[in-house]
Structures are given as structure tokens and as C-alpha cells.
Amino acid sequence: LGADDLTAQDHARVTDPRRLRHLREVHRANVGDEMTLGVEGGLIGRGRLERLDADSAEFSLTLDRQPPAPLDVHLLLALPRPRMLARSLEHVTALGVKQITLLHTRRVEKSYWQSPELKEDKIRQHLVLGLEQARDTIMPTVTHEKLFKPFVEDRLPALMTPASGTPPRGIIAHPGMPDECPRAVHEPVMLAIGPEGGFVDYEVEKFMAAGFEGVHLGERILRVETAVTALLARLG
Ligand code: SAM
After folding, report:
1. How many domains does the chain have?
2. Would you give the DSSP letter of residue 132?
3. Residue ranges of the Ribosomal RNA small subunit methyltransferase E methyltransferase domain (predicted)?
4. Phi-psi bin for 209: left (phi > 0), alpha (psi -120 to 50), beta?
5. Hey, whose CA ends up nearest to atom 25 of ligand 1?
6. In the chain, how long is the greatest CA-to-CA distance?
7. Does 139 share its domain with 26?
8. pLDDT in 10s for each residue of the chain, 236 residues
9. Which residues line ligand 1 (CB under 6 A)?
């Protein structure tokens, strides 16, 4: 459960109605119950429910656990349709991504940028769901880039493209394994994922010119959220 207030190092309070509902309806919590509490900012611990009222819950807290290690991936995600954005943000947060740039590309519908799902509090809700699911506590940063550009950073740059013709060499291929089989990486990665219609040739060329290499998960054309989830799970 995510606590929204650390009142002291040994005490946490939950006042968010959605979390309170979760506490009552999913955990069916009673005073005296113990559960893991995540507190944004990198703290996680065991909480004992001391009081449960209509509008708040109070826990005594024992900080006992470091948050899971971050997966050092900067995700360049071509802005997906709003419903898919919500799920993608939740999944990639649960898988440990700490930086996300929502990118405009030719095949991103302009109307997606007007979606209420892009409001800060909505984005935060999806990230929090992912954190709570994974019992992680470090909130990813999310920024927007409304003009297409391949980012160049001091990271392994990988461009996700479904296999077509000759499979691209997997940039994160394990020596001795098939080229297209990604291995667990422990170095920073920049991972670019296209929109529903894919990147246009011009964009792929720009990525390649910036040093990106193709990485693919075979010939199946996967939904954005499936593709990104599958690849991140292999990196973790
Ligand atoms: N027809 C489009 C194409 O060929 O690029 C399909 C786009 S797919 C629905 C959306 C994005 O998910 C792609 O741009 C790519 O980044 C990623 N993706 C989907 N399937 C993939 C696969 N098998 N391997 C790697 N990336 C994949």
C-alpha cells in the first residue's frame, strides 16, 4: 500500500480516498493488521494499522527495506493513445524505469496531446499504481517532447523495431547467444519505442544517424505496451 504522509519516521498516514478504499475492499484491513507500506521518496517498511476512520488510516511504521534497485533505462515512448498510455506508464514503472520522455512522431495523432490523461495528476496516478504494484518507491520522471528528435545521451541507444527482412543485430545481444536475444544489461540504456503505426523511415534514419541500433523481439508485431513490457522484463 502507498502511504501519502510520513508523519514521523515511525508513523505513516493514508488519507487518499482511493487508497483507503483499497485498504478496506482489497486488503479488508482491520486494526492490528500488518502490511508493507511504500512512501514516495525511497522509503519502504512494515506498517501496523493502528486506527482506521472514514477519512484516514494511521500506521506505526518500521523501516526495514531498501527500495528495489532502479533499472537505468530512459524510455523514449512515442505518445500512445490515452488508454494505452495509462497502462504503459503503470507497467514500465512497475518494471523499474526511472525516466520517461513522451515523444511526438509523425504517426502520433495530434489529438493525443490534448488528452486529460496527460495532466500531471493523472500521470502521477498511473505511476503510483505501478510503484504500489511493484513495492518500489522511486517515482519516475516524465517529460514531454512535442517536436520529434532522437535524444543522444551517454547511454546504450536502442530502437525497438519489429523484425522485417534481415533481423537487425540486437544491440544488447549476449555474446554466444543469438544476436536477437537481449541479455540483462547493467549499463544505462536509452530505449525508443514507436507509435501504433511504427516510426516512419525518416525517423528510423534519424535514430540510426544518432547512433541507435535496432533491437527486436522477433517478427510478431506487438502492441506498444506488450513490446515495452517484454523488453524491459528481459533487461531487469
Ligand atoms: N507496423 C508497425 C511497424 O512495423 O513498426 C507496428 C508498430 S508496433 C504496433 C508499435 C511499436 O512497438 C513499434 O514501433 C516498436 O517500437 C514496438 N514493437 C512492436 N513489436 C515489436 C517487436 N516484435 N520487436 C521490437 N519492437 C516491437
Report:
1. 2
2. H
3. 68-235
4. alpha
5. 216
6. 62
7. no
8. 655 555 556 788 888 888 899 889 988 999 999 988 776 555 567 889 999 999 999 999 886 656 666 678 899 999 999 999 999 999 999 998 989 999 999 999 999 999 999 999 899 889 888 887 887 777 899 999 999 988 888 887 888 888 654 443 434 444 344 444 444 446 788 899 999 999 999 999 999 899 888 887 877 889 999 999 888 877 76
9. 160-162, 193-194, 196-199, 216-218, 220-224, 227
Distance 201 CA to ligand 1 centre (A): 13
Q: What is the Å distance from ligand 1's center to 215 Cα?
A: 10
Q: Report how far ligand 1's centroid is from the alpha carbon of 136 (Å).
A: 28
Q: Are residues 79 and 57 in the same domain?
A: no
Nearest ligand 1 atom, CA 192: 16
Element (H, E) at 65: strand 57-65
Give 175: exposed, middle or buried? Use CB within 10 Å, 0-12, 13-18, 19+. Answer: exposed
pTM of the model: 0.76
Amino acid code (one letter) for 150:
P
Residues 42-54: tens digit of each pLDDT = 556 788 999 999 9
- 111 and 221: one domain? yes
Domain that holds residue 193: 71-235
